[in-house]
């Protein structure tokens, strides 16, 4: 998901216009992903929340479920094709090989499932292809800091903020937001029903410290049994609070936790220097696996993804965290992710979901803002994500 580095309307409009003009996104993502009409609430009549139709570019796909086509200047060697409908030979993979009852529940709630066939792997929501066009989203008014919580404000304040923000995101063709744990279930559904924007709910798994038995622990020791149990229980609390929530796309665990493995313990310090980091990583990813297994037991409907830092420890992940459904990763490699999709295919054989990517708007060399270059980078990155998706002839594991 694109990292939100600017909040000015002008910049957001610039990026949205460039994305639409390039064909990098569908003209109206809700056309393919909107919740069922039998359960969706009516859209507000307030003109401020009513989206005027956008002029579709000439590259707009004719089929709502088909990912958009790139422009002629950037078209891949293999021409995009309409995503084929599921056939008897297609394989559905979802949490614990989701039973029939779980699959029916997923269709009712707007949860994502994974489909594999000869063209690759893709997400589906309510039986239709869903290519994530997302942002990492939070709301902190000017003058406030990290301690501010939108969800502790009166409902009218929350509704006004969400209406303003989600209207802008819809104009940017966004169909999913990544939000850290703490967002009440009713607002996940409120956004889905009114804007067709799904939510990826993210638990940090102790990335920035954790309260263990009433004591704040700034550096989490993933080898400590009590710490592992407390984190697992807290994740399950989040899962139970969002049971059967419409608009919840999938669960996400962590945020570059592999970059914060620096705790000290007797067991770790007894190891040779070269083995300490890998051993710490094994404790982290084995916890991630334990958490994922427990989540699927409580919630057989939603997929579980990991938010790793690039490809670090991918061999450890392959051994220690097989229960993860989707490999999410924060990637800042420039205009292209290079061999990332191919490496994930070879090492994990799982779909790839970029949980963060992008580029700064500030040119550090010239000491000026340059959001045009930033937009150029973003377009190249989105183009690659599209070309790596199912049916496009490359690795075909980008979702």
Give a written overview of the molecule.
With 399 residues, the chain is α/β, with parallel strands linked by helices. It contains 11 helices and 16 strands. It has an 8-stranded parallel β-sheet with strand order 1-6-7-8-11-12-13-14, with helices on one face.
Main sheet, how many strands, which sense, barrel?
A: 8 strands, parallel
Strand order of the largest sheet: 1-6-7-8-11-12-13-14
Number of helices: 11
Straight-line distance between termini:
11 Å
Q: What's the gyration radius in Å?
A: 21 Å
Q: Residue ranges: pLDDT <50 for 5 or more in a row? A: 4-102
Q: Tell me, briefly, the overall form.
A: globular
Strand portion? 15-25%
The percent range for helix content is 25-40%
**Structural class by sheet pairing and helices:** alpha/beta
Quantity of strands, as a count: 16
Q: Summarize the helix and strand pattern as letters.
A: EHHEHEEEEHEHEEEHEHHEHEHEEEH
Mean pLDDT: 79
In short:
With 399 residues, the protein is α/β, with parallel strands linked by helices.
Question: Keyphrases for this structure?
Answer:
four-stranded antiparallel sheet; single chain; alpha/beta; 399 residues; globular; 34% helix; 16 strands
Secondary-structure blueprint of this entry?
Elements: E1 2-3, H1 9-22, H2 30-33, E2 91-93, H3 100-109, E3 112-117, E4 120-125, E5 128-129, E6 134-136, H4 155-171, E7 176-180, H5 185-195, E8 198-203, E9 210-212, E10 215-217, H6 225-241, E11 248-253, H7 266-269, H8 273-298, E12 304-309, H9 314-320, E13 326-330, H10 340-347, E14 352-356, E15 362-363, E16 368-369, H11 371-387
Parallel strand pairs: 1-6, 6-7, 7-8, 8-11, 11-12, 12-13, 13-14
Antiparallel strand pairs: 2-3, 3-4, 4-5, 9-10, 15-16
Helix pairs in contact: 1-11, 6-8
């Amino acid at each position: 998901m694109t990292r939100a580095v600017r909040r000015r309307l002008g910049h957001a409009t610039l990026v949205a216009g460039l994305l639409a003009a390039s064909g990098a996104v569908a003209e109206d993502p809700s056309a393919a992903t909107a919740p069922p009409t039998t359960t969706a609430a009516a859209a507000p009549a307030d003109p401020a929340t009513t989206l005027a139709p956008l002029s579709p570019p000439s590259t707009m796909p004719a089929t709502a479920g088909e990912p958009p086509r790139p422009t002629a200047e950037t078209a891949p060697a293999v021409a995009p094709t309409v995503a084929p409908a599921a056939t008897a030979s297609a394989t559905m993979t979802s949490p614990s090989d989701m039973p029939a009852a779980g699959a029916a529940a997923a269709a009712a709630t707007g949860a994502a499932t994974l489909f594999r066939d000869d063209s690759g792997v893709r997400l589906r929501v309510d039986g239709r292809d869903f290519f994530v066009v997302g942002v990492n989203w939070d709301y902190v008014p000017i003058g406030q800091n990290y301690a501010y919580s939108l969800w502790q404000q009166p409902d009218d304040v929350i509704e006004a903020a969400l209406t303003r923000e989600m209207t802008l995101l819809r104009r940017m063709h966004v169909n999913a937001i990544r939000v850290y744990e703490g967002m009440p279930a009713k607002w996940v559904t409120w956004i889905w029903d009114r804007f067709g924007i799904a939510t990826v709910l993210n638990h940090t798994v102790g990335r920035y410290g954790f309260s263990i038995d009433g004591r704040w622990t700034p550096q989490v020791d993933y080898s400590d049994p009590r710490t592992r149990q407390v984190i697992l229980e807290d994740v399950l609390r989040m899962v139970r609070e969002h049971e059967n929530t419409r608009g919840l796309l999938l669960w996400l665990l962590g945020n570059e936790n592999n970059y914060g493995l620096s705790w000290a313990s007797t067991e770790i310090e007894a190891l040779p220097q070269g083995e300490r980091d890998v051993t710490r990583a094994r404790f982290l990813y084995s916890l991630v696996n334990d958490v994922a297994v427990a989540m699927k037991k409580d919630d057989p409907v939603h997929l579980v993804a990991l938010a790793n830092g690039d490809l670090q420890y991918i061999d450890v992940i392959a051994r220690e965290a097989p229960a993860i459904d989707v490999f999410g990763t924060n990637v800042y490699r420039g205009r292209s992710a290079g061999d990332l999709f191919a490496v994930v295919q070879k090492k994990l054989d799982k779909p790839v979901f970029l949980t963060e990517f992008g580029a700064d708007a500030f040119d550090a060399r010239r000491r000026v803002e340059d959001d045009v270059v930033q937009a150029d980078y973003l377009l190249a990155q989105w183009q690659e994500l599209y070309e790596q998706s199912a049916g496009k002839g490359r690795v075909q594991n980008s979702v």
